[in-house]
Amino acid sequence: MKITPIRAVAGSALVIIALGIVPTFDVWREPLAEVLWPPELDANGWPITEVVVRESVRPYPEATTVKLFVRSAEDMGEWLVEGRILSRDERNAIEGHFRRSGYRHLSYAACFIPHHFLHYYNEAGEEVGRVEVCFCCTGAAASPELFPRQGGFIRRYENQLGFDVEGLRATFEEVGVRTDMWCGREG
Asked: Mean pLDDT over all residues of the chain?
């Protein structure tokens, strides 16, 4: 195939366009998605939260030991030295309430002052991860993260670690762990 001046100019133009679009993709991704898939709005004109994905999550399956730490209002500010090692059944029951939820147009205000901490250790006794749970705002966080913060390509969504609030509360209480700490319900 012979390269004519028109083909050379057209090819160069495509390369220039591609080089200009690719680096700025994050800038125009959201506006493009809003045009192609406008969000449903509530009575006040705010986008309604869309649940994109919800699936069970088993944190740090490589961990051989899980230790539960709890901070009460009296403990705030100092790290608890001792924790409680969970049995396999307790671990399975607690972890059965965790999930990954993906949302579009999620807005919220939350305290996130966790009082329940699950530390995950490998066979060598090294910490491989940690899950923090706040029953006050019903938030949870994992470090290191269990999954990417965002999903989707053009229609992005935010992934969050969540949990079945009432189910996890009941499971903690079954194993003798309080969940009513420092949420305005405790003196």
From this structure: 81
